[in-house]
Amino acid sequence: MPLTKEKRLNINYYKMLPEGAPYQLIEGELVMTPAPNPRHQLICARIFERLLQFIKDKGIILFSPIDVYLDRENAFQPDIIFISYERKEIIKDDGVYGPPEIVVEILSPSTAHYDLKNKFKVYERSGIHEYWIVDPEMNSVEVYTNKGGRFSLIAKAEGKGEIESVLLKGFILSLDEIFRVL
After folding, report:
1. Structural domain contains residue 169
2. Is 2 contained in some domain?
């Protein structure tokens, strides 16, 4: 009996889901993503607020849930994205079509594997310029930049300290500020 490969889903199927459905399409697989916990949301809000204050005339900042379509088998909902005004045409009524310049993912126990493995590879090959991985458990932030289709770790801070964006020159984020207790 010949082996058959399981059919992978594409964005056409994903778009048929009801609005607000807690799913992402990762490498053709529909993955449920439960609502984040309050600490995750506080960290997200603090990073978003700092970015919003900084970017003023540089571009657009959006936060989850927003669909980001990277190819036919990948529709993600990153926690925070930055798109420069020069590339604002990738923002459509039903989502973002193409790679944002910066993607921020805040790890959750249920989705960390995808953020660190599958999504990391898709972001890398899609041409995301900067990928920030924020780990609330470790109170750490890693910043990767894309050079020639490969991510390189350019900044890491854990516990205390700061990270700086390469793309957003002059943007510095203090770990004390984003990881402070309620």
Report:
1. yes
2. no
Secondary structure of the chain in HEC code, one letter for each residue: CCCCCCCCCCHHHHCCCCCCCCEEEECCEEEECCCCCHHHHHHHHHHHHHHHHHHCCCEEEEECCCCEEEECCEEECCCEEEEEHHHHHHEECCEEECCCCEEEEECCCCCHHHHHCHHHHHHHHHCCCEEEEEECCCCEEEEEEEECCEEEEEEEEECCCEEECCCCCCCEEEHHHHHCCC
Does a structural domain hold residue 4? no
Confidence of residue 1 (pLDDT cuts 50, 70, 90): very low
pLDDT in tens, 84-111: 999 999 999 999 999 999 999 999 887 7
Residue 73, domain extent: 11-179
User: Which CATH number belongs to the domain containing residue 35 in this structure?
Assistant: 3.90.1570.10
For 21-48, the pLDDT digits (tens) are 889 999 999 988 888 899 999 999 999 9
Is 152 part of any domain?
yes
